[in-house]
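Protocol step 4 of 5: obtain the predicted structure for the target chain.
Materials: sequence only (see below). No template structures provided, no constraints applied. The aim of this step is simply to have a reference model before the mutagenesis design in step 5. Sequence pasted as it appears in the construct record:
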Amino acid sequence: MEIDGIISAILIGIVIGVLGRLVVPGRQRIGILWTILVGIVAALIGSALAAAFGVADTKGVDWVEWLIQIGLAALGVAALDRTKAGR
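Step 4 output (structure tokens):
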């Protein structure tokens, strides 16, 4: 992965993390850095899953890939929030 790929993953991860956080109802007790990290991981895993299902490269905007990434980010934010709440 080249530097532009890393920068794009970070930028997309920020957007995906924030959108995933907005999907989860209620107040989350995690910081913005954790949200960004969850978003980056969700973006990478979501891209791999979309490629595995054959929906990663479509004409126009890849809505299915985005939905997969946002769903994974929402799951990650909710899971991390639950672990923080247990402490």
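Step 4 remarks: Residues 41 and 62 are 18 Å apart (CA to CA). The chain has one domain: 3-85.
Proceed to step 5.
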